[in-house]
Protein 1
Amino acid sequence: MIPRIVPTPIAPLTLPTQPLEPRRVAPEVLASTLPGPGRDKLADGAVLAVTTGQQPGLFTGPLYTIYKALSVIALAQRLERELGAPVVPVFWVAGDDHDFAEANHTTFLNAQGDLADIVLRERPADAPLAPLARERCGVELRGALDQLKSGTPDTEFKADVVRWLESAYRPDVTLADACAEALQALLAPRGLAVLRAHDRGAKQAAAPWVIGGLGTTLPDGYTPVFVEAGQGRDRLQGSGDAFVTRRSRERFTRADLERLAREAPERLSPNVLLRPVIEAALLPTLAYAAGPAELKYLPDAAPLYDLLRVTRQAPLPRWSGVLVEGRVEKLMQRYRLGLEALDGKPGELEARLVRESLPPEAAESFGALRQELEARYARLASIVTAVDPTLERTVQSARNAALAGTQEIERKLVASVKRESETLVRQIARARAAVYPRGEPQERVLTLASFLIRYGPSLLDALGDEVARWADAP
């Protein structure tokens, strides 16, 4: 049986009302989109698009990457019905991103239900910050796949999931292209168009708007444009009649950058604020499905839309949710817990449940003792202070010591019971790892692969249905 899917809405969903004229997509952009029904639809005349994007990740990264993709698929279907015009869901693979520490690992639940990490490799601290579009998976990939295979349970679905990942994640392929291929294989049959924004065609199409972004200085003093220079991908800051990179301090005139845009456009890229502007310039974008952090910073891009004369797409929340597996569900039902109970400091819930498991007479005795101590010391304080007010603090100290002694006895009793309740403690720890791994939302840590190994394609179907219900809700 597949896990229970619990929606955790980011924000209310309000569809865009501003009309947008369908238009054709440039051949260079189409050439950078992976083949499939989505690209075919993009190429079939004037269309509209609903987009989302994410930096590449190992084995598609955290769950929310998939949730973003399913969100635009469902939103595109609803908008197409309502508008009577073709609407294509597009996933923008942000291969320009250079944060290897975010992309080099993935986390899954192993056969025992414990968290397990796979780290491809570390980038040397002094290495240039190369875009993920130029960071190959490398020979370490074989070990990463072996870790996933050996760490997950053997099921009827495992071989297919492993083949899916092996076909996309290969040693000679970059992380950006591997992630794009994996998303394509998984979701292209549902109509998703996967755009490799780092591909030369897309870069050439985007170059005029990237160059245009040089005309803006952001509050941090830099332009919204990166150039790949001596220390890798680097921000540009205006300096007189030229631009200087933040780390390597290399100097580029505007003519230098315009020449790069013509001859090596892959060396130029937008920052997080300029990227959605370029996306709306290249695609007839009705809306962008964003996560909570994106929804906060996207309004800051408004001046860039105005500068570059690009119609702003509507920012919409993506779908968000939690997969609650059967073993976690049983534990929650047994102890009448909500999901929020697992979102706390490690040890808190365990201690509470263990305390509640104490004999009733123990809890009653501790409570009665505390009340008696409070009452007795209150009477004593009134008598003593009437004789000598300077002794009030002495009485309070004695009271606090007595209560502390009571708490220490209770603490040691709870610890003793807790040692005898190791199974419960272990179950709670694993439930927390499954729902709030390391104190973070499940969707930001765990990868889809281990869930597909356990539950197969029916899980993806169920997620697609749940996201479609969300998108269709009034």
Note: The chain has a mean pLDDT of 93.
Protein 2
Amino acid sequence: MTAVPDSEASTETASSNARRVALIVAIAFFMQLLDSTIISTSLPQMGQSFGVPAVAMSIGITVYMLTMAVFVPLSGWLADRFGARNIFLLAIVLFTLASLACGFSQSLPQFVAARVVQGLGSALMTPVGRILVLRNAPKSELLNATALITWPALFAPVVGPVLGGFITTYLSWHWNFFINIPLGLIGLALVARFIPGDREADAKPLDWPGFFLTSLGLALLLYGLERIAHPEDGALPTVLLVAAGIVIGWLAVRHLRRAPHPLLDLSAFKVLTFAISTLAAGTIFRVAINATPFLLPLLFQVGFGLSPVDAGLMILAYFLGNLGMKTVTTPTLRRFGFRTVMVVNGIIASASIMACAAISPDTPQALVVALMLVAGLSRSMQFTALNTLAFADIDATQRSSAATLSSMLQQIAMLFGVAVAAAILNLSQIMRDRPALDLVDFRIAFVVIGTIGLVAALRFLVLPPGAGAEVSGHATQG
């Protein structure tokens, strides 16, 4: 007589624990992603404080990104060897202490050194956080857990620049880093109290050649993609960096396929849902997802001539759309399934991006706000669906490598999205032989980016109708 209640109680406990772990990981992710976006608004003030030109401060962003690229491939092995909870705690400690060091920096070399440590903490935090969520969430709770850890990626890039501008204007740039301290301390306390410790019983030896090739290839590729947005530095170094990154990446893949104990298990790519969500259509669609927040502020300020404050209010509608979809995503996926949602919603998201090419300073504000809401809503749903489906069919033995591979590909898509958008703007301006960007350049960029998203959305048709049904609950309907 007690078997059913005991089973229900066990399921409820597992569900509650999964949500709690996901929420704790989300707090750490928010701290990390907020820091990545908030710094851009304060670079001129920081340069003035250090006595260097504002453009020289970009090295702080570059070293952070490259440090992440070097150590992300190692994160899964460290989680298996020393325990995901322990590595996650270490990541938060490193990130928090480095934030304190950034805020107290008195010179550019000190700041760069602190950013290297911060990049190391960030490299460990993202994939290991995902590993913790995957290990603590039953498949029935994976969708809700993924939705929780996805909101920082939607929230931070929008609120970061606005918050950074406010802090820099009314306090000082130092507080852009000091606000991480309470977040880090809260995260540490919650992880230590509520997340159980675990580690692999039979940890593999470290694959040094795999680590070297993967890290070097990823670092060169990301640095090359980042340079595309800065054409004034010259095209040849950028092309050489990207080409070298691709060649070394190919050598890394070749090694990982042959090594007896590879740093990363590539067998996850044999799982259709993971391959489509991360490597194939997923990466292509993320290019469109990441290009849009880069283009919109430029459109409103350069194309429309709005002030930063008015542009920020327009972006706020986009952000509210991102948040507004959270309560709708889970029941929608349960009702229609991953394939239908990712195709139909992907088409809507792509159409909303292309629609941004049709608006102008004369467009009624209510119409622009409505478009921003639709773009934000559809972006949020697609983002959550992609991140959830990726791990729907991943075995326990593949989790660490799959989380690491997913993080690496998302970094590439993030930088590639910005690089493609910047390249389209620059090419359009050059072809029109104009000294500055105009509204027509943004229209071309939005049409191209929207078309990229549309192609990716149609690519999801290769998924079977029941893809990820165990996670979405779609198979139980009707």
Note: DSSP finds 19 helices and no strands in the chain.
